[in-house]
Protein backbone atom coordinates (compact mmCIF):
# COMPACT_ATOMS: atom_id res chain seq x y z
CA UNK A 1 0.00 0.00 0.00
CA UNK A 2 1.52 3.35 -1.04
CA UNK A 3 1.94 6.12 1.50
CA UNK A 4 0.78 9.63 0.68
CA UNK A 5 3.18 12.56 1.11
CA UNK A 6 2.15 14.39 4.31
CA UNK A 7 0.20 17.53 3.47
CA UNK A 8 2.15 19.62 5.96
CA UNK A 9 5.43 18.67 4.21
CA UNK A 10 3.99 19.56 0.83
CA UNK A 11 2.78 22.91 2.13
CA UNK A 12 6.19 23.64 3.64
CA UNK A 13 7.98 22.73 0.40
CA UNK A 14 5.69 25.02 -1.60
CA UNK A 15 6.26 27.83 0.89
CA UNK A 16 10.03 27.49 0.54
CA UNK A 17 9.83 27.56 -3.27
CA UNK A 18 7.52 30.58 -3.27
CA UNK A 19 9.75 32.40 -0.81
CA UNK A 20 12.76 31.82 -3.06
CA UNK A 21 10.86 33.06 -6.10
CA UNK A 22 9.67 36.13 -4.22
CA UNK A 23 13.20 37.10 -3.23
CA UNK A 24 14.71 36.52 -6.68
CA UNK A 25 14.99 39.72 -8.68
CA UNK A 26 16.75 41.09 -11.76
CA UNK A 27 18.70 44.24 -12.47
CA UNK A 28 19.66 45.92 -15.73
CA UNK A 29 23.40 46.61 -15.85
CA UNK A 30 25.21 49.01 -18.20
CA UNK A 31 28.71 47.57 -18.61
CA UNK A 32 31.78 49.29 -20.06
CA UNK A 33 32.82 47.52 -23.27
CA UNK A 34 36.25 46.54 -21.92
CA UNK A 35 34.56 44.52 -19.16
CA UNK A 36 32.40 42.41 -21.50
CA UNK A 37 34.06 39.01 -21.16
CA UNK A 38 34.58 38.98 -17.37
CA UNK A 39 31.10 40.35 -16.70
CA UNK A 40 29.47 37.66 -18.81
CA UNK A 41 31.17 35.05 -16.65
CA UNK A 42 30.40 36.88 -13.42
CA UNK A 43 26.71 37.30 -14.33
CA UNK A 44 26.32 33.59 -15.03
CA UNK A 45 27.97 32.64 -11.74
CA UNK A 46 25.99 35.33 -9.88
CA UNK A 47 22.67 33.93 -11.11
CA UNK A 48 23.75 30.39 -10.23
CA UNK A 49 24.84 31.38 -6.72
CA UNK A 50 22.07 33.84 -5.79
CA UNK A 51 19.09 33.23 -8.06
CA UNK A 52 19.14 36.91 -9.03
CA UNK A 53 19.63 37.83 -12.68
CA UNK A 54 21.82 40.58 -14.17
CA UNK A 55 20.60 41.73 -17.60
CA UNK A 56 23.68 43.11 -19.35
CA UNK A 57 24.18 45.86 -21.93
CA UNK A 58 27.66 46.69 -23.24
CA UNK A 59 29.00 49.94 -24.67
CA UNK A 60 30.93 53.16 -24.18
CA UNK A 61 30.75 54.78 -20.76
CA UNK A 62 30.19 58.20 -22.35
CA UNK A 63 27.18 56.93 -24.28
CA UNK A 64 25.76 55.22 -21.20
CA UNK A 65 26.03 58.51 -19.31
CA UNK A 66 24.02 60.26 -22.02
CA UNK A 67 21.39 57.52 -21.94
CA UNK A 68 21.15 57.61 -18.15
CA UNK A 69 20.80 61.40 -18.26
CA UNK A 70 17.88 60.91 -20.65
CA UNK A 71 16.15 58.44 -18.34
CA UNK A 72 17.38 55.05 -19.57
CA UNK A 73 16.19 52.44 -17.03
CA UNK A 74 19.54 50.97 -16.03
CA UNK A 75 19.93 49.85 -12.43
CA UNK A 76 23.74 49.71 -12.20
CA UNK A 77 26.55 51.31 -14.17
CA UNK A 78 29.91 49.55 -14.37
CA UNK A 79 31.93 52.39 -15.86
CA UNK A 80 35.33 52.43 -17.53
CA UNK A 81 36.34 55.35 -15.32
CA UNK A 82 35.67 56.84 -11.90
CA UNK A 83 34.62 60.31 -13.04
CA UNK A 84 31.33 59.28 -14.66
CA UNK A 85 29.90 57.54 -11.56
CA UNK A 86 31.05 60.50 -9.46
CA UNK A 87 29.26 62.88 -11.83
CA UNK A 88 26.11 60.74 -11.74
CA UNK A 89 26.14 60.82 -7.94
CA UNK A 90 26.65 64.61 -7.83
CA UNK A 91 23.77 65.09 -10.27
CA UNK A 92 21.49 63.06 -8.01
CA UNK A 93 21.00 60.23 -10.50
CA UNK A 94 22.76 57.55 -8.45
CA UNK A 95 23.43 56.40 -4.90
CA UNK A 96 26.72 58.01 -3.87
CA UNK A 97 27.31 55.58 -0.99
CA UNK A 98 27.22 52.63 -3.41
CA UNK A 99 30.22 53.77 -5.47
CA UNK A 100 33.37 51.64 -5.40
CA UNK A 101 36.25 50.66 -7.68
CA UNK A 102 35.51 47.18 -9.01
CA UNK A 103 38.66 46.98 -11.16
CA UNK A 104 41.74 48.92 -12.29
CA UNK A 105 42.18 48.55 -16.03
CA UNK A 106 45.44 47.85 -17.84
CA UNK A 107 46.27 49.22 -21.27
CA UNK A 108 48.03 47.05 -23.84
CA UNK A 109 49.48 47.61 -27.30
CA UNK A 110 48.36 44.57 -29.26
CA UNK A 111 48.69 43.03 -32.71
CA UNK A 112 46.89 39.99 -34.04
CA UNK A 113 50.21 38.92 -35.58
CA UNK A 114 52.46 36.81 -33.36
CA UNK A 115 55.89 38.32 -32.75
CA UNK A 116 54.93 41.70 -34.23
CA UNK A 117 54.81 43.69 -30.97
CA UNK A 118 57.93 43.55 -28.79
CA UNK A 119 57.83 43.66 -25.00
CA UNK A 120 59.04 47.29 -24.92
CA UNK A 121 56.61 48.78 -27.44
CA UNK A 122 59.45 49.79 -29.76
CA UNK A 123 57.28 48.77 -32.73
CA UNK A 124 55.60 52.17 -32.39
CA UNK A 125 58.76 53.87 -33.64
CA UNK A 126 58.99 51.76 -36.78
CA UNK A 127 57.44 52.86 -40.08
CA UNK A 128 56.39 49.45 -41.43
CA UNK A 129 52.79 49.65 -40.21
CA UNK A 130 49.95 51.68 -41.68
CA UNK A 131 47.27 52.02 -39.01
CA UNK A 132 46.90 51.96 -35.25
CA UNK A 133 43.49 51.70 -33.58
CA UNK A 134 42.81 53.91 -30.55
CA UNK A 135 39.49 54.46 -28.77
CA UNK A 136 38.14 57.99 -28.98
CA UNK A 137 39.89 59.72 -26.04
CA UNK A 138 36.88 62.04 -25.58
CA UNK A 139 34.61 59.06 -24.87
CA UNK A 140 36.82 56.20 -23.72
CA UNK A 141 39.26 56.20 -20.77
CA UNK A 142 41.46 53.63 -22.53
CA UNK A 143 41.75 55.98 -25.50
CA UNK A 144 42.78 58.80 -23.20
CA UNK A 145 45.36 56.50 -21.57
CA UNK A 146 46.69 55.61 -25.03
CA UNK A 147 47.15 59.27 -25.92
CA UNK A 148 48.87 59.94 -22.59
CA UNK A 149 51.23 57.03 -23.33
CA UNK A 150 52.08 58.36 -26.78
CA UNK A 151 52.72 61.76 -25.22
CA UNK A 152 55.12 60.26 -22.68
CA UNK A 153 56.95 58.51 -25.53
CA UNK A 154 57.09 61.70 -27.61
CA UNK A 155 55.27 59.96 -30.46
CA UNK A 156 51.95 61.79 -30.64
CA UNK A 157 52.70 63.75 -33.82
CA UNK A 158 54.32 60.75 -35.52
CA UNK A 159 51.43 58.37 -34.79
CA UNK A 160 48.51 60.79 -35.28
CA UNK A 161 48.27 60.48 -39.11
CA UNK A 162 48.05 56.68 -38.82
CA UNK A 163 45.41 56.64 -36.10
CA UNK A 164 41.98 55.07 -36.61
CA UNK A 165 39.54 56.05 -33.86
CA UNK A 166 37.04 53.57 -32.45
CA UNK A 167 33.95 54.96 -30.75
CA UNK A 168 34.59 52.58 -27.85
CA UNK A 169 37.18 50.02 -26.82
CA UNK A 170 35.08 47.21 -28.32
CA UNK A 171 35.16 48.72 -31.80
CA UNK A 172 38.85 49.56 -31.35
CA UNK A 173 39.61 45.92 -30.63
CA UNK A 174 37.65 44.87 -33.73
CA UNK A 175 39.78 47.16 -35.92
CA UNK A 176 42.93 45.43 -34.66
CA UNK A 177 41.48 41.90 -34.57
CA UNK A 178 40.27 42.16 -38.17
CA UNK A 179 43.70 43.28 -39.37
CA UNK A 180 42.37 46.62 -40.64
CA UNK A 181 44.83 48.13 -38.15
CA UNK A 182 48.17 46.41 -37.61
CA UNK A 183 48.29 47.73 -34.04
CA UNK A 184 45.75 48.67 -31.42
CA UNK A 185 45.79 50.18 -27.96
CA UNK A 186 43.16 48.02 -26.26
CA UNK A 187 42.22 46.78 -22.81
CA UNK A 188 44.31 43.87 -21.57
CA UNK A 189 41.06 42.10 -20.68
CA UNK A 190 40.17 41.88 -24.37
CA UNK A 191 43.23 39.82 -25.27
CA UNK A 192 43.89 37.97 -22.01
CA UNK A 193 42.13 35.01 -20.42
CA UNK A 194 43.23 32.89 -17.48
CA UNK A 195 46.28 35.10 -17.09
CA UNK A 196 47.62 34.57 -20.63
CA UNK A 197 47.52 36.49 -23.92
CA UNK A 198 45.15 34.44 -26.09
CA UNK A 199 46.77 35.19 -29.46
CA UNK A 200 49.02 37.61 -31.26
CA UNK A 201 51.66 39.73 -29.53
CA UNK A 202 51.44 42.46 -26.93
CA UNK A 203 53.20 45.09 -24.86
CA UNK A 204 51.51 45.65 -21.51
CA UNK A 205 51.89 49.39 -21.02
CA UNK A 206 53.46 50.25 -17.64
CA UNK A 207 51.00 51.94 -15.31
CA UNK A 208 53.42 54.87 -14.97
CA UNK A 209 52.80 55.83 -18.61
CA UNK A 210 49.25 57.10 -17.99
CA UNK A 211 46.79 58.05 -15.27
CA UNK A 212 45.32 55.01 -13.44
CA UNK A 213 42.19 53.60 -15.07
CA UNK A 214 39.97 53.27 -12.02
CA UNK A 215 36.73 51.59 -13.06
CA UNK A 216 33.90 52.40 -10.67
CA UNK A 217 30.43 50.96 -10.17
CA UNK A 218 27.34 52.82 -8.97
CA UNK A 219 23.74 51.90 -8.23
CA UNK A 220 21.37 54.20 -10.09
CA UNK A 221 18.28 55.65 -8.47
CA UNK A 222 15.89 53.30 -10.26
CA UNK A 223 17.48 50.33 -8.44
CA UNK A 224 18.17 51.78 -5.00
CA UNK A 225 15.63 49.35 -3.47
CA UNK A 226 16.35 46.48 -5.87
CA UNK A 227 17.52 43.31 -4.09
CA UNK A 228 19.39 42.08 -7.18
CA UNK A 229 21.30 45.36 -7.45
CA UNK A 230 22.48 45.18 -3.85
CA UNK A 231 23.36 41.51 -4.23
CA UNK A 232 25.37 42.14 -7.42
CA UNK A 233 27.35 45.00 -5.90
CA UNK A 234 28.21 42.75 -2.95
CA UNK A 235 29.05 39.89 -5.30
CA UNK A 236 31.51 42.03 -7.28
CA UNK A 237 33.49 42.52 -4.06
CA UNK A 238 33.59 38.79 -3.31
CA UNK A 239 36.29 36.21 -3.98
CA UNK A 240 34.58 34.48 -6.92
CA UNK A 241 34.08 37.66 -8.92
CA UNK A 242 37.54 38.97 -8.07
CA UNK A 243 39.17 35.75 -9.24
CA UNK A 244 37.43 36.14 -12.61
CA UNK A 245 38.35 39.82 -12.83
CA UNK A 246 42.01 39.10 -12.05
CA UNK A 247 42.16 36.33 -14.69
CA UNK A 248 41.46 38.98 -17.35
CA UNK A 249 44.39 41.14 -16.33
CA UNK A 250 42.73 43.70 -14.07
CA UNK A 251 44.18 44.94 -10.80
CA UNK A 252 42.37 46.18 -7.69
TrEMBL record:
<dbReference type="GO" id="GO:0046872">
    <property type="term" value="F:metal ion binding"/>
</dbReference>
<feature type="signal peptide">
    <location>
        <begin position="1"/>
        <end position="24"/>
    </location>
</feature>
<feature type="binding site">
    <location>
        <position position="169"/>
    </location>
    <ligand>
        <name>molybdate</name>
    </ligand>
</feature>
<dbReference type="Pfam" id="PF13531">
    <property type="entry name" value="SBP_bac_11"/>
</dbReference>
<dbReference type="InterPro" id="IPR044084">
    <property type="entry name" value="AvModA-like_subst-bd"/>
</dbReference>
<keyword id="KW-0479">Metal-binding</keyword>
<keyword id="KW-0500">Molybdenum</keyword>
<dbReference type="InterPro" id="IPR050682">
    <property type="entry name" value="ModA/WtpA"/>
</dbReference>
<protein>
    <submittedName>
        <fullName>Molybdate ABC transporter substrate-binding protein</fullName>
    </submittedName>
</protein>
<dbReference type="GO" id="GO:0030973">
    <property type="term" value="F:molybdate ion binding"/>
</dbReference>
<dbReference type="GO" id="GO:1901359">
    <property type="term" value="F:tungstate binding"/>
</dbReference>
<comment type="subunit">
    <text>The complex is composed of two ATP-binding proteins (ModC), two transmembrane proteins (ModB) and a solute-binding protein (ModA).</text>
</comment>
<dbReference type="InterPro" id="IPR005950">
    <property type="entry name" value="ModA"/>
</dbReference>
<dbReference type="GO" id="GO:0015689">
    <property type="term" value="P:molybdate ion transport"/>
</dbReference>
<keyword id="KW-0732">Signal</keyword>
<feature type="binding site">
    <location>
        <position position="61"/>
    </location>
    <ligand>
        <name>molybdate</name>
    </ligand>
</feature>
<comment type="similarity">
    <text>Belongs to the bacterial solute-binding protein ModA family.</text>
</comment>
Amino acid sequence: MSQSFPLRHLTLACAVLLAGAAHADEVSVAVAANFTAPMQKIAAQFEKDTGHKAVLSFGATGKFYAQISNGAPFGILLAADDTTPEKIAKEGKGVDASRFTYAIGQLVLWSKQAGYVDDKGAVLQRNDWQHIAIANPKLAPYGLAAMETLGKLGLTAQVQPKTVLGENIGQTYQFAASGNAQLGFVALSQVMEDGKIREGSAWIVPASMHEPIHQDAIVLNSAKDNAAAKALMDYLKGDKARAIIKSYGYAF
